[in-house]
Amino acid sequence: MTLISENKDNKVMMFIDLRNVLKSVESMEAMSFRLDLYALTINILGSRELVAAYVFDSKAREGTEDRSKKLHDRLRYLGFRVITRDAFDPDAREQKEVDVAMASEMLVHALRNHFDVAIVVSGDRDFIPAIEHVKAAGKRVEVAAFAHSVSSAVRQSADKFYELEKMPLLFMNNPPAAVETAEAAEEAA
Question: What is the β-pairing status of strands 117-121 and 94-95?
Answer without folding.
Answer: unpaired
